[in-house]
Amino acid sequence: GAVVSQHPSWVICKSGTSVKIECRSLDFQATTMFWYRQFPKQSLMLMATSNEGSKATYEQGVEKDKFLINHASLTLSTLTVTSAHPEDSSFYICSAPFKNDEQFFGPGTRLTVL
Amino acid sequence: AQSVTQLGSHVSVSEGALVLLRCNYSSSVPPYLFWYVQYPNQGLQLLLKYTTGATLVKGINGFEAEFKKSETSFHLTKPSAHMSDAAEYFCAVSVRFSGGYNKLIFGAGTRLAVHP
Fold first, then answer.
1. Cα–Cα nearest to A34, from A61, A80, A71
2. pLDDT at A2
3. Which of A93, A111, A113, B63 has its CA 20 to 30 A from that of A9?
4. Is A28 an interface residue toward B (CB < 8 Å)?
5. What is the mean pLDDT of residues A6-24?
6. DSSP letters spanning A29-93
7. Which of A14, A8, A10 is nearest to A85 (CA)?
């Protein structure tokens, strides 16, 4: 099956700093990737759709300047949380579609902002 | 617009008992439906999916789900629960968008507890 990795698996940072999270498709190419956010004991909320070679598409209510997405290659998308604050603390998960009708998820990145 | 409702945020069963996790969907077009499982601090793993064809879908770990269009339901079942089934379960419906791929809309999730 298709494998998606994320790095780092967890990160702790100070308020005001920026944090970059990587999402990689290891054994397939992904022109599209999705970024989700999950608060404790809650469901996944789609934040944005990452498109290789073009701008990301953000869901309503998600700040584009806050959550910068770059899809640099067919196997890598990055999410940068800029000027992070404690309310940005969350579990961030990416996914990549494989064969159109199935998405494979990364293991997630837990961000804690102090 | 597509949406998913999972009835019961927590379900508790005894080991060996039937597992039933409920999912109802709303979709203006024929839906693609999915069940995912999430273990603590991990990503999501696909249990099973319905796209077209047979309405009874079998997945991994002994789980199955039946697509019932008349009831707009896609309930997940397993005849006999195992301790290792304790996890969070998410039902999802796909939304096809202009990019050609499907976005997933998730239900709120159901936490399954299995006790001895």
1. A71
2. 85
3. B63
4. no
5. 97
6. --SEEEEEEE-TTS-EEEEEEEETTS--EEPTT--TTTEEEEEEETTEEEEEE-S--GGG-EEEE
7. A14
Contacts of B51 in chain A (CB under 8 A): 101
Q: What angle do CA B82, B8, A42 make, to 5 degrees?
A: 90
Residue A54 in contact with partner chain B when CB distance is under 8 A: no
Which tokens go with A40? 């404790």
Per-residue pLDDT tens over the stretch B8-45: 999 999 999 999 999 999 987 878 899 999 998 888 99
Per-residue model confidence (pLDDT) at position B98: 58
Contact B42 A102 (CB under 8 A): no
Residue among A49, A101, A105 minimizing CB distance to B43: A105
What DSSP state is assigned to residue B40?
A: T
Contacts of B26 (CB under 8 A, 6+ apart): B1, B2, B3, B4, B5, B72
A11 part of contact set with chain B, CB < 8 Å: no
Q: In this structure, is the dihedral angle defined by the CA atoms of residues A52, A56, A57 and A60, taken in order, positive or negative?
A: positive
Question: How far apart are the C-alpha atoms of A99 and A91, rounded to whole Å?
Answer: 26
CA angle A107, B81, B91 (to 5 degrees): 45
